[in-house]
Every structure is written in C-alpha cells, then in structure tokens.
Amino acid sequence: MEIKNSLVRNLDPYQAKVEKEAADAAAGRAKGAALQPQPAQGDRVSLSDSARLHTAAHTEIAHAPEVRREMVDAIKERVDSGEYTVDARRVAEKLVQEEALLAGTLDTVV
After folding, report:
1. What whole-number distance in Å separates Cα of residue 61 and Cα of residue 98?
2. Distance CA 16, CA 6 (A)
3. Residue 80 lies inside a defined structural domain of this protein
4. Which of 17, 58, 89, 106 could be joined to 100 by an S-S link, Cβ 3.0–4.6 Å?
5. pLDDT tens for residues 37-77?
6. Where in the sequence is the domain holding 76, given as residue range(s)?
7. Could you tell me the pTM of the whole model?
8. What pLDDT score does 91 carry?
9. Residue 24 domain-assigned?
10. Number of domains present in the structure of the chain
11. DSSP string across the chain
C-alpha cells in the first residue's frame, strides 16, 4: 500500500505557482506560441520647461567649439608679463548689470 501526502503541496503556495507557470509555459511552447511580456500600460514621463531648457543647454555645450589654446596661452603670457590689465570698476559694473538682468530688474545689458 502506498500513501501519498497531498497536504505538503498545499502548504507551499509559491511552489504551486511556480509549477503552474512552468506548465503554462510548456503548453504555450507546445502550441508554438511564444510568450511575450506585455508592455506596461499607464507609465508616462513628462519634462518641465526647466528640464527641457537644461537638456538644450547640455546639447549646446556638447556642440560648442573647443578652447583655442593659443589664445589662452597668449593672454596668460600678457598677464604674467604685466602687459594685460583689467579695469576692476568696469568688471564690477558688468557683473552688477548681468545680475540685474538675470534677476529680471533690467531689460538689457548696457
């Protein structure tokens, strides 16, 4: 006499699910139908105007010309030799103007 314990299988629902999925997959292959995952429905991505602007800026930077090393070296030599001087007042005025422009309190840079 052989005794089969059918309760053991019912105690492990995960194993039952795995076995059912394996059987379903085998049946699908037997019929010649390939099981393909269904695309997720309802997932969407939207970008804010700020994000679009950020992306556009990165694209422009990627396509910007490289630094002209000979120009940079020439200016460095002039700075080191004392031939290149900077008008600190003019630089400060331009910084203030640009800051005002960025803050929206000035229409154009003078």
Report:
1. 21
2. 12
3. yes
4. 106
5. 666 677 888 888 888 898 888 888 888 888 888 999 999 99
6. 67-110
7. 0.29
8. 95
9. no
10. 1
11. ------HHHHH-HHHHHHHHHHHHHHHHHHTTPPP-PPPPSS------HHHHHHHHHHHHHHTSPPP-HHHHHHHHHHHHHT-----HHHHHHHHHHHHHHHHTS-SS--
- Residue linked to tokens 């490289």: 66
Task: Kindly report the three-state secondary structure assignment for every residue of 59-76.
Answer: HHHHCCCCCCHHHHHHHH
Q: Which residues contact 16 (CB under 8 A, 6 or more apart)?
A: 9, 10
Please say whether the beta carbons of 78 and 87 come within 8 A.
no
Q: Locate tokens 């314990």: which residue? A: 5
Q: Give me the amino acid identity at 33.
A: A
The two tokens of residue 77 are 């030599």
